[in-house]
Structures are given as C-alpha cells and as structure tokens.
C-alpha cells in the first residue's frame, strides 16, 4: 500500500533530533530543530527510505500511512 502521509507523533515520546531519519532519507526528512517532513515530497518515490527511517527512529515518533 502506498504511503500518502508522513508525520511526527510525539504523543508517546519526543523527537531527540538525532538525525537518523535525515541520514536515511534526506529527500523526505530534515532536522532544523526537530524532525520535519519536507514540503512537496512525492512519498511514493521514497517509500523504502521512509520505512527504513521509521524502523531506525530510536524514539519511534515517525508515523506514516
């Protein structure tokens, strides 16, 4: 199933700005202060990177659907 939405969910924990998501998939993620999803990204082009970033996130705050 295609990823259509990616977001930061800090309801269970906080982003620690470790940079892992940006290192794994810089086309989608940036860390200016906390993780942000870059505007205008076609998530379908980076699904593998998004999934890898979600799995690698030490605080599990990256979500996608």
UniProtKB/TrEMBL annotation:
<comment type="function">
    <text>Ferredoxins are iron-sulfur proteins that transfer electrons in a wide variety of metabolic reactions.</text>
</comment>
<keyword id="KW-0411">Iron-sulfur</keyword>
<protein>
    <recommendedName>
        <fullName>Ferredoxin</fullName>
    </recommendedName>
</protein>
<dbReference type="GO" id="GO:0051536">
    <property type="term" value="F:iron-sulfur cluster binding"/>
</dbReference>
<dbReference type="GO" id="GO:0009055">
    <property type="term" value="F:electron transfer activity"/>
</dbReference>
<dbReference type="InterPro" id="IPR017896">
    <property type="entry name" value="4Fe4S_Fe-S-bd"/>
</dbReference>
<dbReference type="InterPro" id="IPR001080">
    <property type="entry name" value="3Fe4S_ferredoxin"/>
</dbReference>
<dbReference type="InterPro" id="IPR017900">
    <property type="entry name" value="4Fe4S_Fe_S_CS"/>
</dbReference>
<keyword id="KW-0479">Metal-binding</keyword>
<keyword id="KW-0813">Transport</keyword>
<dbReference type="GO" id="GO:0005506">
    <property type="term" value="F:iron ion binding"/>
</dbReference>
<feature type="domain" description="4Fe-4S ferredoxin-type">
    <location>
        <begin position="4"/>
        <end position="34"/>
    </location>
</feature>
<keyword id="KW-0249">Electron transport</keyword>
<keyword id="KW-0408">Iron</keyword>
<dbReference type="Pfam" id="PF13370">
    <property type="entry name" value="Fer4_13"/>
</dbReference>
